[in-house]
Amino acid sequence: MTGYLASNFGRLSEEKSLDDFIDDYFLDYVGENRTLESKSLTADSTGRLVITFVYTVPEFARELDNNLVVKPVSYRFRENPFTREKRVYPIDFDFPYVYHNVVIIGSSRPMVTATLPQQVTSAAPGITYKRLAQFIDGKVQLDAKLTITNDLLEPDAYPEVKKLFEDVAHASQDEVILHMGAQ
């Protein structure tokens, strides 16, 4: 995650331990039963804050016959923040930014294949969203990226922005079905 939220997170990350920061601002969305495996807080070559963490959630799936149904975690924009029918004032995102969420789903049981959510691509003036799902080397990878290049949009762009964030919220509800091999 870079840009818009990073300025606030950068300040907050300096006020807490890295474990507490990740727990308070990310993992609390997941729930109580999770284990933080690794974490890092660095700056990229342009000085932007980069937060990377890996965690496991043992019971984040439900079993259905010889399949596991998993709902991947999404930290932001699970709901559309644009709910009104019309808007008469500009849409101000404060800063251009990129929100990039990569979820890798693995299992101690061998996965034969997976039923993946469809690719999602949506665009509005100055905003793009793309989500790809892949089955690679016995793991599922979901890669979602929301890019806001124009942080101030005119009110006439509102219907397209609202539709894009509806697509983002809807995509965050998609489940993955893992087809498991013999134990």
Structure description:
With 183 residues, this protein is an alpha+beta fold. The protein contains 3 helices and 12 strands. The strands form 4 sheets. It has a 4-stranded antiparallel beta sheet, with no helix packed on it. Strands 6-10-9-8 form a 4-stranded antiparallel beta sheet, with helices on one face. The longest helix has 14 residues.
Q: Approximately how much beta-strand content do the residues carry? A: 35-45%
Number of discrete helical segments:
3
Could you give the count of β-strands?
A: 12
Structural class by SSE content: alpha+beta
**Radius of gyration, whole Å:** 18 Å
Low-confidence stretches: 1-7
Q: What average pLDDT do the residues reach?
A: 83
**Mind summarizing the main beta sheet?**
4 strands, antiparallel
Distance between the termini: 38 Å
- String of helices and strands: HHEEEEEEEEEEEHE
Overall 3D form: globular
- Give, in spatial order, the strands making up the sheet with the most strands: 3-4-12-7
Which bin fits the share of residues in helices?
10-25%
